[in-house]
Amino acid sequence: MGTLPFMLFSLKFLLFSIQISSETDIITQFHSLHDGSTLTNGAFELGFFSPGSSTNRYVGIWFKNVPIKTVVWVANRNHPIQDKSGTLSISKEGNIVLQSKNGTNHWSTNITTKVSTSNLVAGLLGSGNFVLTDEKDNRDSGFYLWQSFDYPTDTILPGMKFGWNLTSRFNRRLTAWNNWDDPSSGQITYGFIKSDLPESKIQNGSSVIYRSGPFNGLRFGATQKLKHVPLFIVDFVYKTDEYYFHYQPKDPSLLSRIVINQTVSALQRFIWVEENQKWILYLNVPRDECDNYNRCSSFGICAMIGKSSMCECLSGFTPKSPQNWSVKDWSQGCMRNENWRCREKNKDGFIKFQNVKVPDTKKSWISKSMTLETCKVKCWENCSCTAYANSNITGNGSGCIIWFSDLLDMRQLPDSGQDLYVRSSAIETTNRDDSRKRMVVVTSTTCSIIVILFLFIIVFCWRRKAKSKFRGGWTCKNTTSTSKLVIESKNDSVKYLE
Ligand SMILES: *[C@@H]1O[C@H](CO)[C@@H](O)[C@H](O)[C@H]1NC(C)=O
Ligand SMILES: *[C@@H]1O[C@H](CO)[C@@H](O)[C@H](O)[C@H]1NC(C)=O
Ligand SMILES: *[C@@H]1O[C@H](CO)[C@@H](O)[C@H](O)[C@H]1NC(C)=O
Ligand SMILES: *[C@@H]1O[C@H](CO)[C@@H](O)[C@H](O)[C@H]1NC(C)=O
Ligand SMILES: *[C@@H]1O[C@H](CO)[C@@H](O)[C@H](O)[C@H]1NC(C)=O
Ligand SMILES: *[C@@H]1O[C@H](CO)[C@@H](O)[C@H](O)[C@H]1NC(C)=O
Ligand SMILES: *[C@@H]1O[C@H](CO)[C@@H](O)[C@H](O)[C@H]1NC(C)=O
Ligand SMILES: *[C@@H]1O[C@H](CO)[C@@H](O)[C@H](O)[C@H]1NC(C)=O
Ligand SMILES: *[C@@H]1O[C@H](CO)[C@@H](O)[C@H](O)[C@H]1NC(C)=O
């Protein structure tokens, strides 16, 4: 009778071995990995490498069949090994450890669970996840004693959970490499912040570069609606004990990665295009000038006009420095018109703004059960309240966010923003179309200027072309066609992590 469990155990072990390709492709207490050999599985390879022109040795994971060495995970990013004496093994305590010749520890996992170490197996999964398991566990349950997917470096791979475990207060974040030659922790980070509503930020140290906007039940505030059938299935899971973002390409053979890039301070999604043997930039965040954090300062709202951004004060507000504002220095922001009086009839009210990315929720209060009507009352009663909105825009909307003090980092999002009710003097409330008219005027004058410029360029090119027939040399060429693939794929925008 005792053979049945044993057979099941052997079967599981066999399945696991197949899953991690072959038995030599695992690390056990009796089998370590030395510099020079690697573990491989599917599209991925784990081993020792030196980045760029550096001679330092690191343990990392990269794409096996991509000729441009693309590292997706680094174990000892801040503790390089100076020579080729590195060894990755399982310690007596049951942790994966990276040591060099004289026994110096360069990196290790941090397991506190008591396990029988002789049963421990570390291996690379086909997803690019490096895992430590107890042989006797059921691998299908996805339970790992430790997994590299929980400790991302600068890259999110398909299948990875990116976000918070709210029970253990554990957050998975990205930190950029310092440069091509140096994977050590850089200044630029990306991750979900600690907040009542899920929201992610790109930061340079402690200063914010980009804010996704809070999750509003359908998507993150700053992202746009799907326009095309995307290449990826993107999902945001929001439960009481955890929330995370994850994604999978629809075509499982497509290689892709999301990486935080220090050189351009941006979060980028790349896909590997086999024919071109190139990583193609599929998405870049911040996408435009209005995505840059707090572009228009307090009570300013950003709108994209063509490729450049334009700031406006919310109606009921005027520029703090009209001179600076008129020369597009928006850094001082806007202030309330003088005729506002808190809770005074005809001098206090709310203006509804549609299709906006809601302000930074740093100084806000949230109730997930309150209705919009009670939300309004709650805001009205408190003189420091400056705006309110639904926290969940699903269906007819529910929940309540109210903001205190200055409203920062708002933008116009023509087809995906939400309604925001901004506190203002009631006089303004009746003239709510004013700002829209102003915007239209600005837009139409800008358009006219663009059209005139464009005509001018055409005439100029035409004349140059006519001349160049005789002289040779410079001509006006249509250069956009070469980058068509990139531009097209960028339009293929994805719901969440834009
Ligand atoms: C190992 O070598 C490094 C660098 O040469 C040195 O800093 C370290 O103290 C040595 N460790 C031991 C345990 O000898
Ligand atoms: C391991 O965990 C302990 C306690 O949680 C922590 O103090 C330590 O910094 C961790 N070490 C590493 C290498 O993560
Ligand atoms: C969160 O972390 C705790 C402690 O590490 C763990 O027991 C739990 O399973 C985790 N929750 C999820 C949803 O992964
Ligand atoms: C990040 O901040 C540092 C100083 O805090 C600055 O020197 C550096 O230029 C900033 N980098 C970017 C990309 O903004
Ligand atoms: C948003 O509201 C919808 C419908 O009321 C509900 O099903 C959903 O769970 C809510 N989402 C969040 C994140 O609260
Ligand atoms: C960073 O972005 C630039 C510009 O898009 C790109 O050329 C470069 O390869 C990126 N770096 C990494 C490490 O992906
Ligand atoms: C206008 O901008 C200049 C230069 O940035 C600054 O010195 C000045 O204080 C600004 N004016 C006001 C009223 O803030
Ligand atoms: C208004 O809200 C602020 C921030 O939550 C709070 O500190 C203050 O006590 C409130 N004032 C009143 C009158 O409720
Ligand atoms: C949404 O509002 C409309 C119109 O007020 C109403 O007919 C509908 O029943 C509401 N839907 C929900 C789910 O409350």
TrEMBL record:
One of its GO terms (biological process) is recognition of pollen. It catalyses: L-seryl-[protein] + ATP = O-phospho-L-seryl-[protein] + ADP + H(+); L-threonyl-[protein] + ATP = O-phospho-L-threonyl-[protein] + ADP + H(+). This is non-specific serine/threonine protein kinase. Keywords: Disulfide bond, EGF-like domain, Glycoprotein, Membrane, Signal, Transmembrane, Transmembrane helix. Its EC number is 2.7.11.1. The keyword Membrane applies. Residues 1-22 form the signal peptide. It is an enzyme of class 2 (transferase). Gene3D superfamilies: Bulb-type lectin domain. Involved in sporophytic self-incompatibility system (the inability of flowering plants to achieve self-fertilization). Residues 286-323 form the EGF-like domain.
